[in-house]
Design goal:
Strand content: 25-35%
CATH superfamily of the largest domain: PPM-type phosphatase domain
Distance between the termini: 37 Å
Strand order of the largest sheet: 3-2-1-6-5-4
CATH class of the largest domain: Alpha Beta
Number of helices: 10
Length: about 400
């Protein structure tokens, strides 16, 4: 792009104007763009900006690699590991990465949309200056928006990130999930499910309504489709109650009735529901059979957030006690399901919460944002458990910023 500019004071303005026009054309045509035309349109815009070899790299379900989206005009190739790669560095940090090469500069741009990140746009330019960087950031934002909106009309984007066979139960669970992360002015969240391609009963949900963050993590009893069906009902009931603007105790009661009426007295879902006032840091929660969340301060676990627990939803528990805590700026709260700590190590001993806390402290010191922490923690814990995931496991991290 920089190589196309002529000398003289008017050169940069002409080049910048051309770039703005190309982005404008992309934006103007986006509302009626067919999903299969996203790839060639992105390739055309990159060429118009003086770039070459564009690639759209999307996160796989296991959050291990960035897989190329296939499409006319896009560079193909093998999946790129998220760890120890320029594309992965851009993805984890949310900041563009420039890699000098013999024939130019390879630029990796995180595809950010609404605080979540779908993947990375990669392209090569002869040289890069500040005008280029500004235009490329805008291009990446538009591409991210296209991927999110057009993803609802096609399977191709989902297929790009699917590198292993997926169970029907896992398909249901992934379709339930909100974006895996959100970063806004006062709060950031990130969650992960494992095993990614076989998960059944675990799920999470969240919503930021005005200044209040609502969060729920759940674990439906059993395995396979039965667990996935219960999780679907539990999440649906949670969303329905949450959107009625009722309190945590009423949300618990509504979820309890929904599960009991649908599945009978022998089935249950453990759950944890939270509300965080993002203006004041006031945290409220109801614990219905989950492990106690961990409070992280200055990158170390300082305590378990102890509370009275009530029966899992579906068992007809009494009105729950609502626990409360005032967070400090920068505090993080880690919610997790029992599959994370009840797994057996290779020697036969239970993994346990003490080991979890030890690894949280290690990962917190080595990673920055909540998304990178949750991802790294999930992977290192799986390694420490000998790669075993006989039960579903969920991690969900909240940061009051």
């Amino acid at each position: 792009m920089s190589g196309e500019r002529s000398s003289g004071a008017a050169g940069p303005h002409r080049a910048e104007g051309r770039g703005e026009r190309l982005l404008g054309e992309l934006l103007d045509g986006a509302h009626e763009l067919s999903p299969q035309l996203v790839a060639p349109l992105v390739a055309d815009v990159v060429r118009g900006l003086g770039g070459r070899d564009p690639a759209l790299l999307l996160q796989d379900y296991g959050q291990l690699v960035l897989a190329p989206l296939r499409g006319r005009g896009l560079a193909a190739g093998e999946p790129v590991p998220i760890d120890a790669s320029p594309a992965g560095a851009a993805f984890l940090s949310g900041v563009p990465v420039e890699e000098p090469q013999a024939d130019g500069v390879r630029v990796y741009l995180p595809l950010l949309e609404g605080g979540d990140e779908a993947g990375v746009l990669a392209l090569t330019l002869e040289a890069v200056d500040d005008d280029d960087r500004r235009l490329l950031r805008r291009l990446a934002a538009l591409v991210a928006e296209l991927l999110v909106t057009r993803g609802g009309y096609t399977d191709r984007i989902f297929q790009a990130g699917r590198l292993e066979p997926m169970s029907v139960a896992a398909e249901i669970q992934w379709s339930l999930l909100p974006p895996l992360s959100m970063t806004v002015h006062r709060v950031a969240v990130a969650g992960i499910l494992e095993p990614a391609y076989q998960v059944a009963g675990d799920s999470f949900d969240y919503a930021l309504n005005d200044d209040v963050l609502h969060v729920a993590t759940i674990d439906a009893m059993g395995h396979g489709l039965d667990a996935a069906t219960m999780a679907t009902v539990a999440i649906g009931a949670y969303r329905h109650a949450r959107r009625a603007d009722i309190g945590l105790a009423e949300i618990y009661a509504f979820m309890d009735r929904a599960v009991a009426e649908q599945f009978g007295p022998d089935h249950f879902v453990t759950a944890q529901m939270m509300r965080l006032d993002t203006l004041t840091g006031h945290l409220q929660w109801v614990n219905a059979g989950h492990p106690q969340p961990l409070l992280i301060r200055d990158h170390a676990v300082v305590e378990r957030l102890e509370s009275e627990t009530t029966l899992p939803v579906g068992f007809g528990g009494e009105e729950p006690v609502i626990s409360e805590r005032a967070l400090r700026h920068g505090d993080r709260v880690l919610c997790f399901t029992d599959g994370l700590v009840e797994e057996r190590e290779p020697g036969g001993e239970q993994f346990g919460e003490e080991q979890l806390i030890d690894w949280v402290n290690r990962v917190e010191r080595s990673q920055a944002g909540v998304r990178a922490v949750v991802r790294a923690l999930s992977h290192v814990l799986k390694e420490q458990r000998g790669g075993r995931t006989s039960d579903d496991a969920t991690l969900f991290l909240i940061e009051w910023r």
